[in-house]
Amino acid sequence: MEIGPFVTRSVLTVEEGESLRDAATSMIERGVGSAVVLTDGKPSGIVTDREALHAIAQGKDATSSTVAEFVKGKLATVVPSLDIFEAARVMRQKGFRHLVVVDDQGELMGVFSMRDLVVGLMEERASLLVDAEGAEGTS
After folding, report:
1. Number of domains observed in the structure of the chain
2. What pLDDT is stored for residue 126 in this prediction?
3. What is the DSSP pairing of strand 108-113 with strand 98-102?
4. Quick check: 51 and 84 in contact, CB under 8 A?
5. What secondary structure does DSSP assign to the chain, as a single string?
6. Measured between alpha carbons, how far apart are the two ends of the chain, in Å?
7. 9, 44, 114, 131: which could join 110 in a potential S-S bond, CB 3.0 to 4.6 Å?
């Protein structure tokens, strides 16, 4: 089963030069825990509410700090045709709670989150149960 149908398409984006405070405010207003960071219109990272909390706890000035300062490492993107079990493996192996989903041209399509993973796995399991029940009825 591909992740495409489970990708959250309405995604908060912020520019890399935006202040951490503005990004955190946008996350609160939208009721989300992450924002995709854009550089020249392309996804370059992800910043989460956890990074904002860590920054504040460390005494950083959220108004003068930019989101670019809190983007860790190189962004790993995935495509919507990725198998859901492969997505789970990548998330577990890399410690990611979110995967940024892009199209063939690298344009942002959405985010695949832990919540999306759970929904997808539940749907996969339900599908397997229906298939198993159908197979029992034919034997």
Report:
1. 1
2. 81
3. antiparallel
4. no
5. -BSGGG-B-S--EEETTSBHHHHHHHHHHHT-SEEEEEETTEEEEEEEHHHHHHHHHTT--TTT-BGGGG--SPPPEE-TTSBHHHHHHHHHHHT-SEEEEE-TTS-EEEEEEHHHHHHHHHHHHHHHHHHHHHHHHH-
6. 26
7. 9
In this model, does residue 131 exceed pLDDT 90? no
Between β-strands 98-102 and 77-78, what pairing exists: parallel, antiparallel or unpaired?
A: parallel
- Provide the token pair at 85: 């079990």
- Residue 10 lies in domain: 4-138
Angle at 63 between CA 59 and CA 69, to 5 degrees: 75
The per-residue pLDDT for range 115-128, each reduced to its tens digit, is 999 999 999 888 76
pLDDT classification of 75: cutoffs 50, 70, 90 = confident
Q: pLDDT digit string (tens) for 31-56?
A: 998 999 999 989 999 999 988 898 98
CATH number of the domain at 55, please: 3.10.580.10
> What is the distance between the alpha carbons of residues 4 and 90, in angstroms, rounded to a whole number?
16
Order of strands across the sheet with 108-113? Answer: 77-78, 98-102, 108-113
